[in-house]
Design brief:
The protein has helices at about 5-15, 20-25, 30-40, 50-55, 65-85, 95-105, 110-115, 145-155, 160-175, 185-195, 210-225, 225-250. With about 260 residues, it is mainly α. The protein has one domain (about 5-250): Orthogonal Bundle (Fic-like fold). Helix 5 packs antiparallel against helix 6 (about 95-105). It is globular and about 70 Å long.
Length: about 260
């Protein structure tokens, strides 16, 4: 079945999701896939099997990997639950929320070296770090001001321009790189939060497409061109929801055939 972003958007809007309980029901399958793919983009030790076990059972069996990986998966579950808890009131992102999500996603994942450098989950970076081919993100002393400017820009967006706003937030957030670690996970999660509170479908960035993802971010970093990221989000959204839409379109019962 040929899928388009507008078709997925209409599918989502027709759900008419009004409460966190309704959202949780729609995202039951999505949540594990998002946590797996978002984590695996930067940590190849994260597996779908381990992610599913932690989401379903709060633990894993026969695990021999690093504790950091387990924390990252468990933290993704906690962050997802936090998103659900915010959905009823739909508060806009502020600095406090930003830092809280960073703390949720990175607790237990910072090593001794980061702590020795004064870094801590839930706090902006204290030093400058190389983040890409040419950039080191904002200087540590400029992070707070640049994040304030970014969040102020988001205060007036509406449902109609939510996709562009979400893409802009993610690109700009990664460009600023406000934390010493975990920026990608925080950026992808809060990009989806922006989409959700503006009645847009959340998206999974699939790990097999991460080269295209990084390329789209680089286009913004180097040319201030947001279009590649917007198009990437549209394509990944179609990929995220096409199977569920296909299943719902083919659902039937005996009453459909009895006249």
């Amino acid at each position: 079945m040929v899928m388009s972003y507008n078709k997925v958007l209409n599918f989502w809007k027709n759900k008419n999701i009004r409460s966190s309980d309704e959202l949780a029901a729609v995202l039951e399958s999505y949540s594990v896939h998002f946590a797996y793919n978002s984590g695996n983009i930067e940590n190849s030790e994260i597996t779908y099997h381990d992610t599913r076990e932690i989401f379903d059972k709060n633990g894993v069996t026969s695990y021999t990997g690093s504790t950091k990986t387990l924390f990252e998966i468990q933290n993704s579950k906690a962050a997802y639950e936090k998103i659900l808890s915010l959905f009823d009131d739909k508060p806009h992102i502020d600095e406090s929320m930003l830092k809280e999500f960073h703390k949720i996603l990175t607790v237990g994942t910072y090593n001794e070296r980061r702590f020795a450098l004064g870094e801590c989950p839930g706090e902006y970076k204290h030093r400058d770090y190389v983040t890409g081919k040419k950039e080191a993100g904002a200087l540590a002393e400029d992070v707070s001001e640049e994040i304030d400017e970014l969040l102020n820009e988001l205060s007036d967006i509406d449902d109609e321009n939510a996709l562009t706003a979400a893409a802009y937030f993610h690109a700009k957030f990664e460009n600023i790189h406000p934390f010493s670690d975990g920026n990608g996970r925080v950026g992808r999660l809060l990009m989806n939060y922006i989409l959700l509170i503006h009645n847009h479908p959340p998206v999974i960035f699939f790990t097999e497409d991460k080269k295209d993802y990084y390329s789209a971010l680089e286009e913004f970093d180097e040319k201030l061109d947001l279009k590649p990221l917007i198009e990437f989000i549209k394509f990944q959204t179609e990929k995220t929801w096409k199977n569920q839409i296909s299943r719902e379109n083919t659902d039937c019962s005996i009453t459909d055939f009895i006249k």
